[in-house]
Write a structure and sequence with these properties.
Helix content: over 70%
Distance between the termini: 126 Å
Shape: rod-shaped
Oligomer: single chain
Structural class: mainly alpha
Strand content: under 5%
Largest sheet: none
Radius of gyration: 37 Å
């Protein structure tokens, strides 16, 4: 019977060790999860920043295209005027 009690105590110790090991693993996984969430937040913030930059660039391109269109129209008017003067 003493041997059986000893075996039960060993099994109990092994179970406690396993529980402690699992607790440590859970803490590691929780830390990894928190770090992952922080990285996602950082990526989302960067994404918003890049979206703002994209919209700004699109606005600049639209403005540039408008100005270029106006310039082409004015050059066309000057060319037409010079054509008339040459006649």
């Amino acid at each position: 019977m003493g041997e059986e009690v000893s075996r039960c105590l060993d099994t109990g110790r092994a179970s406690l060790n396993k529980i402690e090991e699992l607790k440590g693993r859970i803490e590691e996984l929780e830390t990894a999860l928190r770090n992952g969430k922080l990285r996602v937040e950082l990526i989302e913030a960067s994404n918003e920043h890049y979206k703002e930059q994209l919209h700004h660039s699109q606005d600049q391109t639209r403005d540039r295209d408008y100005i270029m269109g106006e310039a082409v129209a004015q050059v066309q008017e000057v060319a037409d005027h010079l054509q008339k003067l040459a006649i």
